[in-house]
Amino acid sequence: MIASGPKLQRRDIALVTFAGVAPDIDGLGIVPEVLTRGSAHPLTWFTDYHHVLAHNLLFAAFVTIFVFAVSRRRFLSCALAFIAVHLHFAMDILGSRGPEGFNWPIPYFEPFSTNVQITWSGQWVLNSWQNVVITCLLIIVVMARAIQIGKSPVQIFSPRVDQELVQTLRLRWEKTSRAFKLG
Asked: How far is CA 170 from CA 137, 179, 182, in A?
């Protein structure tokens, strides 16, 4: 959504999208943790490092610099990437509490300082109704935006499939809006 407003090329849209999901790279530690659970030397990489290594200002700066270096519209793309990373942080603060009740903090100044931990006591459980409603609303907004501008997030992976999707959405919307006008 963040990259769909300005006139960015496919590559820059992909980079901004990458920036929005990049902080969860520190969640990949779940794979070795699950594989070594119950062993003599379990690796607790997810437990120890998720929401730590890539959920901080330093990582946001790293991603922003990376996007600046490889994007075409550098200043716009890196500004949007910085916003996307921070939107990820904000959404984690709102709704990423674990099923056991653990409130995931954002160690914003890690590794320089562990004193600032951004958290919210009302943090929703990851699979809460609030997150489901937000997801559904964003899907509707993305579909409406695709109808409006003729592109969807699918363009990152396949421009041809994206055009088929947009055409299908436009046809469905046209039929639905005609049905409402007649009814």
From this structure: 18, 14, 18
pTM attached to this predicted model: 0.86
- Burial (0-12, 13-18, 19+ Cβ within 10 Å), 103: middle
Mean pLDDT over 74-85 rounds to 96
CA distance 172 to 158: 21
Is residue 152 domain-shared with residue 68, that is, in the same domain?
no
- Of 76, 102, 125, the residue at which a domain comes to its end is 125
- Domain ends where: 125, 147, 166? 125
Determine the residue type at 18: F
pLDDT confidence of residue 179: 65
Range of the domain at 36: 1-125
